[in-house]
Amino acid sequence: MSFHLTPGAEGLRTRLFHIIFESDTPGSKAFDIALIIAILTSVAVILLDSVESYSDRFGHIFFYVEWMFTLLFTVELAVRIYCLERPTIYLKSFYGVVDVIAIIPTWLVLLVPGAHGLVIVRLLRVLRIFRILRLMEFVGEARLLLDALKRSLRQILLFFCSIFMVVTLFAALMYTIESPEAGFTSIPMSMYWAIVSMTTVGYGDIVPATSVGKAITMILMLMGYSIIAVPTGVFSAQVLRSIREDRYSEEACPGCGHDRHEKRAHYCLRCGTWLDEESEDPRKKEEKKDDDQQKGGDQNTSQDS
Amino acid sequence: MSFHLTPGAEGLRTRLFHIIFESDTPGSKAFDIALIIAILTSVAVILLDSVESYSDRFGHIFFYVEWMFTLLFTVELAVRIYCLERPTIYLKSFYGVVDVIAIIPTWLVLLVPGAHGLVIVRLLRVLRIFRILRLMEFVGEARLLLDALKRSLRQILLFFCSIFMVVTLFAALMYTIESPEAGFTSIPMSMYWAIVSMTTVGYGDIVPATSVGKAITMILMLMGYSIIAVPTGVFSAQVLRSIREDRYSEEACPGCGHDRHEKRAHYCLRCGTWLDEESEDPRKKEEKKDDDQQKGGDQNTSQDS
Amino acid sequence: MSFHLTPGAEGLRTRLFHIIFESDTPGSKAFDIALIIAILTSVAVILLDSVESYSDRFGHIFFYVEWMFTLLFTVELAVRIYCLERPTIYLKSFYGVVDVIAIIPTWLVLLVPGAHGLVIVRLLRVLRIFRILRLMEFVGEARLLLDALKRSLRQILLFFCSIFMVVTLFAALMYTIESPEAGFTSIPMSMYWAIVSMTTVGYGDIVPATSVGKAITMILMLMGYSIIAVPTGVFSAQVLRSIREDRYSEEACPGCGHDRHEKRAHYCLRCGTWLDEESEDPRKKEEKKDDDQQKGGDQNTSQDS
Amino acid sequence: MSFHLTPGAEGLRTRLFHIIFESDTPGSKAFDIALIIAILTSVAVILLDSVESYSDRFGHIFFYVEWMFTLLFTVELAVRIYCLERPTIYLKSFYGVVDVIAIIPTWLVLLVPGAHGLVIVRLLRVLRIFRILRLMEFVGEARLLLDALKRSLRQILLFFCSIFMVVTLFAALMYTIESPEAGFTSIPMSMYWAIVSMTTVGYGDIVPATSVGKAITMILMLMGYSIIAVPTGVFSAQVLRSIREDRYSEEACPGCGHDRHEKRAHYCLRCGTWLDEESEDPRKKEEKKDDDQQKGGDQNTSQDS
What we know:
Chain A has 305 residues and is mainly alpha-helical. Chain A has helices at 11-21, 26-49, 52-83, 87-92, 94-111, 128-135, 139-151, 153-177, 187-198, 211-227, 229-247, 282-292, 299-303.
């Protein structure tokens, strides 16, 4: 998702665009950092406002700070729209929707008194941190992780499918064995218990009461405890592969088609073809010499490569 | 497990066989997806029916839906049997047994009124999802995982053996140290506690009361916390190995017997023998040229490979 | 630990020695399996005997079964001593001590009535399963794991040192912040809580009551949650290295000293020296031919290796 | 951080410096071990003193032991300062500050009666164990781990950022869904619950009461259960890379620039240049022979490398 500014845009608009939507100048980096601080502060205010003792004492301060941030984010949104030639595309994008949603609740209070509770959706704005990180130097790292995730996607799907089945079957089993008094009042409730047990969370709000139930629980817990090794193993292997392939060039050798050369390799390791297009093959020079001279002992050096 | 249809089967039977037992035509894929949806819906109905408040209100709807699915799965089973030349082999197979078990409970209600509770075994049908996944594109991924699991099987067995011993010894120790009032009423109960603690589930229904018991618990928890690194490490290594070997051809080099060539390798990396049977060795052409010409400087290029 | 039998031993003694102390004949394998079954059964009896309802009903059966196993293990111990030339070495070894300890409690009851509770130490006998596994085919797998463990030993020590310090500092912190009413009655108790939290067990018997305590707990939990990646990562890497090195021969190449050849390699990958001592280098034959013939075009094939 | 002693220091001072600040002589190793024992003992005394039943009985002994350790550590600090030419640099360093903080509380009691509670900060002294470990043989291992951590730093940051966002959003969601009676009294409290659930600790002091809340909890628990595979995978891959690169020399080949040679490699694997500066290239000798003789069949051996 990248937004382009109006071609014939005046200076201010161009400058604002670079500051807001890019992140390679000092100004745009300062804007990114200021935005993260503003988002985190507004989030902190919402969090503290939800604590009764704080909202009783500092409620009026929180009220003004909230309005200040609402105005700030509204201005930011207006500037974003002003910068872009086609603001509707931005407004329909994920971060555009989040930005609009984040300021609506406070404005809505002016019309609907009870809308204040919705201010909580502003927390969605923390997601913008991801975008800012993406713009900053985290691109490479995230790409590597996403690459590894994409590769292990099917195995992860298989993993969740297996967990779903194990959970369903154990939940049905425990529902028939355990009494509702122990908390196993329905199969969905037993599934909640099974997930709590299998993910090793173990709240303890629902625990097996019978001996058979406890024996089954032991098996489920051991399964949950050890099955996590599967996605971890798969993901470890995929990350390692991504890191390794990052080191290799994707260009095939013109000599033999081998395509796993290190990015800084000069020769093809398989057939010896010279790969580095920017410099000349030292062997060629020697061959020329060979052509000039008679074939002699120094032919060995060129053949050793 | 693959089922073959009657050789001299008429058109309908053949077509049904392909739709139900295979998954490479649009029709059979649609059938697979419809089957998964039907299974998940029938599972959802059973789950909701077990919740008292829902079964009170929608009990009669659930009743009809359940009969509908029973009829549907009965028809499906009948068609499966009709398609096959030797249905008994299918009926004795794992998925055959599951399919039969899934429809029996509802039919049994007609004979035995109390059999309704058994409807829960229909949940076993979710296991069929695995079979459908296997038929679809998940074969490669699952094979890789199973391959890695098979290789680490012994180490996993060793891991479970060790856990069993640690759990037994800690359970016996805690049974003698802690009083029955704290929940350690017997060694099996202490084993339940030990597994709850070691797998880091920690329900909190049984906790040590004495100082010595707490000290022993700390050791057990630290063991459980860190010992999981062992199967994870083993499995990671095995998955990586499986992925890597997947890249290698299993055919040995006819020149030197080396059998770890990449699947797309043209030359044997060890002795230089040409491996790709579909194309011709470029060196051979050069050799022919060499035979025609007198031995010259371009001999080097053929020796560098 | 391997025990040798009397050199001039008669036939029975030799045969018993092979059956009991080795595991490569059908007889000795049957003995190992019978011993594992006997140990597990005797363990099961002790477990069930500790459950009051079972011991009330089947107490007298358990009593006879226990004596039967005591006699059985006593006979086994006697035969072991009889087989060996120097039984004292065996009796001082780990498994010798375990074997003696396992039968003492039941015999002690004849002298001291209250000694019955000690029968629990018989559970230590389950440790013998490890020895049997070692004798059976698990040697290679265990060696690989131990190899990886030995290599990551220091990093694991460092890991436990770090955990000890984090736990101590967080425990001291929580002891000063939280009140004794919440369960933080002393620093050792706080350490128990810190380990319960950090290992993600989370019994819930001691939980922070104050806001500051909860904030500190969040940090501790996140540390415990993510720090486990460190030993897992280290161990994964070490297992992979062990597996890989298992594939390589430890013999150096006589030509260039390179010592990372695959066990089944014929040539040294670095300098081309022939490694397989059992067969002859195919190039040598060609060279002989070369000497006979005049140097010709087919010299290329021998140089390509 | 390394501290240098006064250049023209007398014999005692030099000897003390070597004993206290280094760790390669038997004397300094003994000092390190004695210091670790002293620190651990003083920590143990503080821990036991915090247990009421022990402090009631042995309070006066603990009092004297505490003063003994305070005097000991004061003398140690004085000697450290005496040894160094610029003690202020040491006193401003991390371990200098810790050393001073560790003895202040006990001395402060002489002035301020209530200061005794501060004795707990002495626990910070356990951190010195890290320094001693660093001085001892753990340098290599720690370097490897730190190297891997440094490489995965960004991915770990990304991981904690993601956790923070997931926790915030789930906390806000649960705060609106669940009632304060269930424990979800504020968003920070819900965040505490979310971290307890996501890290799989699961105290059970706050659990969802409604069905929707339980469904959301299931998703959160499954996320927490499986997301840990990400940092583990990343870290595993990085440790493996660190181990592998440790095996490789950082010196580039003078022939072709290839810089991934094993530390003990004699030839460059890519271009065949002789790397081992301490011995002579065996091929050169052969070449000399070649120059003496006429070019013959044994030319092959030198070309095969």
